[in-house]
Amino acid sequence: MIRTIGRTSNQEIINDFQLEDIKEKMFEWYWVDIGEPTKEEEILLSSFFHFHPLAIEDCLFRLQRPKVDHYDGHSFFVLHTFNEETLEAEELNLFVGENFVVTFHFPPMHELDQARERIVENTKWWNRGAMHTAYHIVDKVVDAYFPIVYKIEDYLNDIEDKLSSDVYHLSLDQVFDLRSDLLRLRRTILPMRDLIYRVLNSERVNLQQTEKAYFGDIYDHLLKLGDMVESNRELTADIRDSQMSINSSQMNRIMMILTTVSTVFIPLTFIAGVYGMNFTNMPELEWRYSYFIVLGIMLIIAVSMLAWFKYKGWFNLFKN
Amino acid sequence: MIRTIGRTSNQEIINDFQLEDIKEKMFEWYWVDIGEPTKEEEILLSSFFHFHPLAIEDCLFRLQRPKVDHYDGHSFFVLHTFNEETLEAEELNLFVGENFVVTFHFPPMHELDQARERIVENTKWWNRGAMHTAYHIVDKVVDAYFPIVYKIEDYLNDIEDKLSSDVYHLSLDQVFDLRSDLLRLRRTILPMRDLIYRVLNSERVNLQQTEKAYFGDIYDHLLKLGDMVESNRELTADIRDSQMSINSSQMNRIMMILTTVSTVFIPLTFIAGVYGMNFTNMPELEWRYSYFIVLGIMLIIAVSMLAWFKYKGWFNLFKN
Amino acid sequence: MIRTIGRTSNQEIINDFQLEDIKEKMFEWYWVDIGEPTKEEEILLSSFFHFHPLAIEDCLFRLQRPKVDHYDGHSFFVLHTFNEETLEAEELNLFVGENFVVTFHFPPMHELDQARERIVENTKWWNRGAMHTAYHIVDKVVDAYFPIVYKIEDYLNDIEDKLSSDVYHLSLDQVFDLRSDLLRLRRTILPMRDLIYRVLNSERVNLQQTEKAYFGDIYDHLLKLGDMVESNRELTADIRDSQMSINSSQMNRIMMILTTVSTVFIPLTFIAGVYGMNFTNMPELEWRYSYFIVLGIMLIIAVSMLAWFKYKGWFNLFKN
Amino acid sequence: MIRTIGRTSNQEIINDFQLEDIKEKMFEWYWVDIGEPTKEEEILLSSFFHFHPLAIEDCLFRLQRPKVDHYDGHSFFVLHTFNEETLEAEELNLFVGENFVVTFHFPPMHELDQARERIVENTKWWNRGAMHTAYHIVDKVVDAYFPIVYKIEDYLNDIEDKLSSDVYHLSLDQVFDLRSDLLRLRRTILPMRDLIYRVLNSERVNLQQTEKAYFGDIYDHLLKLGDMVESNRELTADIRDSQMSINSSQMNRIMMILTTVSTVFIPLTFIAGVYGMNFTNMPELEWRYSYFIVLGIMLIIAVSMLAWFKYKGWFNLFKN
Amino acid sequence: MIRTIGRTSNQEIINDFQLEDIKEKMFEWYWVDIGEPTKEEEILLSSFFHFHPLAIEDCLFRLQRPKVDHYDGHSFFVLHTFNEETLEAEELNLFVGENFVVTFHFPPMHELDQARERIVENTKWWNRGAMHTAYHIVDKVVDAYFPIVYKIEDYLNDIEDKLSSDVYHLSLDQVFDLRSDLLRLRRTILPMRDLIYRVLNSERVNLQQTEKAYFGDIYDHLLKLGDMVESNRELTADIRDSQMSINSSQMNRIMMILTTVSTVFIPLTFIAGVYGMNFTNMPELEWRYSYFIVLGIMLIIAVSMLAWFKYKGWFNLFKN
Ligand SMILES: [Mg+2]
Ligand SMILES: [Mg+2]
Ligand SMILES: [Mg+2]
Ligand SMILES: [Mg+2]
Ligand SMILES: [Mg+2]
Ligand SMILES: [Mg+2]
Ligand SMILES: [Mg+2]
Ligand SMILES: [Mg+2]
Ligand SMILES: [Mg+2]
Ligand SMILES: [Mg+2]
Ligand SMILES: [Mg+2]
Ligand SMILES: [Mg+2]
Ligand SMILES: [Mg+2]
Ligand SMILES: [Mg+2]
Ligand SMILES: [Mg+2]
Ligand SMILES: [Mg+2]
Ligand SMILES: [Mg+2]
Ligand SMILES: [Mg+2]
Ligand SMILES: [Mg+2]
Ligand SMILES: [Mg+2]
Ligand SMILES: [Mg+2]
Ligand SMILES: [Mg+2]
Ligand SMILES: [Mg+2]
Ligand SMILES: [Mg+2]
Ligand SMILES: [Mg+2]
Ligand SMILES: [Mg+2]
Ligand SMILES: [Mg+2]
Ligand SMILES: [Mg+2]
Ligand SMILES: [Mg+2]
Ligand SMILES: [Mg+2]
Ligand SMILES: [Mg+2]
């Protein structure tokens, strides 16, 4: 599906014109968006726009890393958006020339609709040309990263708050999922950051001073997103280690209680076993109070063992 | 709430003048602080001061990373202070022009009161202009980081000293909390450090040599804070590992004692069980001294097991 | 075995000509591939082509790191291909001069056949000369890395999806194998990346602007491969840690169930032991309902212990 | 306490002259050391020497990071020495001007006595001026780091040698102490290294070529100290991991032996328990050889269990 | 012991001449090797060669880090060789001037004999001068690193292959030893690499283009050695983690089998205990088939427990 927008030399914004209208050169700037393309639409990249074959190859074949390439007459950007459900990166290809922007992408991308809306709304920016249109697109693409990262961060803050509470038990599987999501996000955000840095500092992208401030604003966002991803990954590592140690100490505490019970009863059971033997000649058996004495001895043994454990501090060892 | 201070061309300091007075241009330099702003006060940023829309957006919307941007007629700083209780970063926006400083922040910030006091006190600095006023503000902001980091460092030194003592048991949850606090601090301190570095080395911030020494002093502080945060994070990792190994070896020592008890008694209990069987034909049962012999054998077994354990060095294995 | 291809001054492509034909200088450019060389063919490097002795030494002796060296009249590249089965790196030596490419390698390499095919097919590129032929070779070498890395990545994604499922048990040995494969891949991919970077930015390799775009395309691939290898290594570490914690918590859950069973029965067995003693004077033994009372007490003890465990939350502790 | 030394214009070294003598300008160079200063002596920094207020602030207040600042007429160094007992860093402030060195420090520092001695001894260096005096001081400060780092390194080498021996049991607490000491040392050594690097490469410190060799020699030492600290920290991590795994495998071996004993006896005890039951109708009890048969069965069970364990390789599992 | 070699102005190589012959200046270049020096030979460094005192100090006192210093009339290199048995670094000091090389070392070094041999053999290189002689020495020093690193790498590859096999049990102590050896190697190889890099890129070392290729060849080797050391250290970490998890899961499997045995028998033993009690009124005891019924119940309990374990999947849990 192809969507178009452009500004004519008589200061009007025209929506959804035909590609043929471009040839009449009546546009100050225009943006052609090729989304979910048919085979015929794919071919337009070379037949109609005459982009560089390497750029077209990057559009059509597997996911590229975010980057910018400069060819005669156009710069070629590869940007990433995220599929909000799977957090898989998706590729948005963007060509910028003197007076045009062309975007090309296989999955539908709502970021582009938002950019189009903002362009239509801000009449005062209409005279800024193609690079400013490109700015709106990149800005919306990067803005869409924030809810994803904030969601992870909020979730981690939640976990962090609950972590010390005794009743909360964190599944380490969740933490692993978060870590792998952050890894995936990082693989897009860091190259996007470096890409915008190169755009800001390259002599080949002829950014005007006014545009620089706007791309600088995007760079800020990417710096912050990069920081957040990195420190959230460190936080997940801390949470995982902390939770594993909590689990293991809780587990140990229980094992110790259970083992203590066994340890107290085993010698007593042995004594009972001794007096359950059937030897003919076991003089104690006949004594009057021997049964009660043995019970008393058993009690003394049990109590002394517990006292010794308490003296050794084993009971408060794993209290918290 | 708006607070103002400024120096008139006739060498006086005036406090809390009206914004309208500025227009009459009687000030060598002035500082306007907009704190906990009302909606009307927020609007002043654009309607009265005419700051760049991107800078105003950064003031009004979510927390930015510490940074400096240069626009026509003013530089725009985003600084972080810390909420001393939650250790959450809070945003202080600072605009510096030729002869003015404007600060804008949502939460109240005592650092600004301290900066104001110092400005009033140091009469000899009054002629240094707006950038020196900005220095006082940034200096107070960074000075306020120290008590927070020192508190964590002192606490860690405390823990470190107690760690080897036998009676001290550290909750790993505390260590995790410290680590996450240090992570949070780092997210502010490192970008603040880089920000001051850029201020010192940028050609756009026209720092005089005298001012450079003062901003260099702040940079020293941030370098030291950065070092402290990093090495304290490493220390917490060491403490955590050390404590986990202490816990686990203490736990193991106890389990081993308990298990040893069981192991000694289990064969003896078996023997008792054998002579508790009710077979008609068990010749040993009738022998005169068999009971005592069996008791003796049990004793010998128990003693030999303990002796073997001792010989194998199991008893001193987990001594400390 | 020697294979040749070249373009004569009258615009033809000639395949498999004799080395002697070169001397007659009828070639615009030519490529000589020396694969699985005999001793005589090895000697050609010095006797026929007169390459630098250090470059020849690098061809003949042990595996070099990917690199480029510049000598009078030729640049010398060491490239790595992978043995697809063992993932061992194999060395491809490549000499480029004004009008020639010479490749030298001990194992057979199908990447070279593919490069040759593409050269023959793309008639429009025939006039681009030796450096473009070199591009085709390097491109095919790097393209062949992708299936290897993608295979590992797909496998890891598979593991990641199954990881939280209860019935899936991952052998940590597999993860270790993947990690060591990734280590091996990294040892080739990172130096290859740096090598292409140097080629792109060196003044000594006189790349034309058109060729730069092509080598830049290879550089993109290597950047992406480098990212994939690094983040997949991090992912394996996460998977390993996650799986170890899953294993250990499953194991702990089972141990706890088993230990709980023991703990409940051990005091009961002790009581049974007590009433199995053979003392003459054990008044309870004669009472009418004492057996049933004791059975009841045993039941009460067992139930209270289980109730206490439940109250303490031990049963749901390791549920998930 | 103030100590002075200087060289007069008539080529003499004068010790412990009065500060007032300086004003008469009879010195080619002089060094004033202010150690453990009284309040009056502290004031000299501003009243007598007129150093920059920021430098004086750094002298008087809390520990600074090692650094160099350049002010009009003097450079200001902050150096660290170590308290040899606590390994705490201590601050040595050093001012260098055209013809003077001033040192200021709160704790006593024997390094300064050594520097003074060397200056007095080396008559041929007397004409080199203030910067060479500063070199002697910095050199002695850095030389004093070596015994501290060597002591840790020797201790670690010792541990490493003993580690595999069976009788040696390392307290992990010691390793933790070493790690935290190394962390503390690193916090001084790395900034000291960077400081000397800046001195060597700065245009502001007007080092002559001859002096450069001498400061370069200090830089060598700091590079080596930095390497040693870093690799010793890695070594401690390795030792800790190795020791933990040795501990845990020793512990496991013992637990397994103990558990094996229990496992062999528990079924036997059960059998004994069965024939200890008091049912009236238990035909086996009356048979002539049933007791001996049961004993034999018990023996067979025990032996088969042990044989199965041996067949499964459990006995040699934890041998080493 | 002093060994000499040099080339006279009439194109001859002279071996083992006297130091006094040098003064007559008849040499185009010469190399003096001072190995295992006597006190008198040590003094030659200053009395005969007049090297810089800082360089002489570095020769005579403790082990330096690999480095290069430039003094008037000579460059001074500190190189490391390895003691092949202990893997301890040993210091080789090398002075290079316009027409001389002087080496100085305390332990004997076979690398120098090899360098001398190669010099004598390669008559065509005789006219290249002192720097080429230095190249031969450095080359032989670095070549000698390879067998050491290859030995470790081969050993690790061996371990890696055996790791998944069930019968192979790796001592973690060995892995620790390898790690500490790699640490030691790294402490030499990385500074050696940086040293050669500085030599290649420094303006002070006046390397001719031809020599650059040769030193570049050494740099290649050091890059590769550095890579190998780093990735082998990562591999040892992986092996250690993998082995620890294998050990622990094997151990856990065994513990679980043992615990399962106990868990099955403990309730049965309890039941036997109950019917071993000596109460007068235990009606079941008198019933005709109660003994057989109880045996049957015991069997049912045991079988149901095992069935439940199997249903829960515990038996295949730790199969692999
Ligand atoms: Mg694509
Ligand atoms: Mg935005
Ligand atoms: Mg949040
Ligand atoms: Mg907490
Ligand atoms: Mg996910
Ligand atoms: Mg912004
Ligand atoms: Mg804001
Ligand atoms: Mg301050
Ligand atoms: Mg402190
Ligand atoms: Mg301690
Ligand atoms: Mg907190
Ligand atoms: Mg300061
Ligand atoms: Mg080779
Ligand atoms: Mg390709
Ligand atoms: Mg995939
Ligand atoms: Mg999962
Ligand atoms: Mg493999
Ligand atoms: Mg491409
Ligand atoms: Mg101080
Ligand atoms: Mg020294
Ligand atoms: Mg040593
Ligand atoms: Mg060892
Ligand atoms: Mg200490
Ligand atoms: Mg030295
Ligand atoms: Mg030496
Ligand atoms: Mg070599
Ligand atoms: Mg090998
Ligand atoms: Mg394997
Ligand atoms: Mg060793
Ligand atoms: Mg080579
Ligand atoms: Mg355990």
Model description:
The structure is a homopentamer of 320-residue chains. Chain A is of the alpha+beta class. Chain A folds into 2 domains: 2-244, CorA soluble domain-like (Beta Polymerase, domain 2, 2-Layer Sandwich), CATH 3.30.460; 255-318, Methane Monooxygenase Hydroxylase, Chain G, domain 1. Chain A has helices spanning 19-23, 39-47, 53-60, 110-121, 130-143, 145-163, 172-201, 209-274, 290-311, 314-317; strands spanning 2-8, 13-15, 27-35, 67-71, 74-82, 89-96, 100-105. In chain A, a hairpin with a 6-residue loop joins strand 5 (74-82) and strand 6 (89-96). In chain A, helix 5 (130-143) packs parallel to helix 8 (209-274). Chain A starts with a strand and ends with a helix. Chains in contact: A-B, A-C, B-D, C-E, D-E. The interface between A and C is large, with 58 and 47 residues. One magnesium ion (MG) binds at residues 173, 176-177 of chain A. Chains A, B, C, D, E: It is a multi-pass membrane protein.
List the helices and strands and how they pair.
The structure is a homopentamer of 320-residue chains.
Chain A: E1 2-8, E2 13-15, H1 19-23, E3 27-35, H2 39-47, H3 53-60, E4 67-71, E5 74-82, E6 89-96, E7 100-105, H4 110-121, H5 130-143, H6 145-163, H7 172-201, H8 209-274, H9 290-311, H10 314-317
Parallel strand pairs in A: 3-7
Antiparallel strand pairs in A: 1-2, 1-3, 4-5, 5-6, 6-7
Helix pairs in contact in A: 4-5, 5-8, 6-8, 7-8, 8-9
The complex binds magnesium ion (MG) (31 copies).
Biggest sheet strand line-up of chain A: 2-1-3-7-6-5-4
CATH first level of the largest domain in chain A: which class?
A: Alpha Beta
Helix content of chain A: 55-70%
Distance between the termini of chain A: 62 Å
| Helix segment tally of chain A | 10
Heteromolecules bound:
magnesium ion
Helix-and-strand structural type of chain A: alpha+beta
| Percent range for β-strand residues of chain A | 5-15%
Order of helices and strands of chain A: EEHEHHEEEEHHHHHHH
Task: Predict the CATH topology of the largest domain in chain A.
Answer: Beta Polymerase, domain 2
Main sheet attributes: strand count, strand direction, barrel closure of chain A: 7 strands, mixed
Unreliable runs of chain A, pLDDT <50, ≥5 residues? none
Mean pLDDT of chain A: 88
Rg over C-alpha atoms of chain A, rounded to the nearest angstrom: 36 Å
CATH superfamily of the largest domain in chain A: CorA soluble domain-like
Number of strands of chain A: 7
**Most extensive protein-chain contact, per-chain counts:** A-C, 58 and 47 residues
Oligomer: homopentamer
GO cellular component, one term (chains A, B, C, D, E): plasma membrane
Membrane topology (chains A, B, C, D, E): Multi-pass membrane protein
Family (chains A, B, C, D, E): Belongs to the CorA metal ion transporter (MIT) (TC 1.A.35) family.
Transmembrane segments (chains A, B, C, D, E): 254-277, 289-309
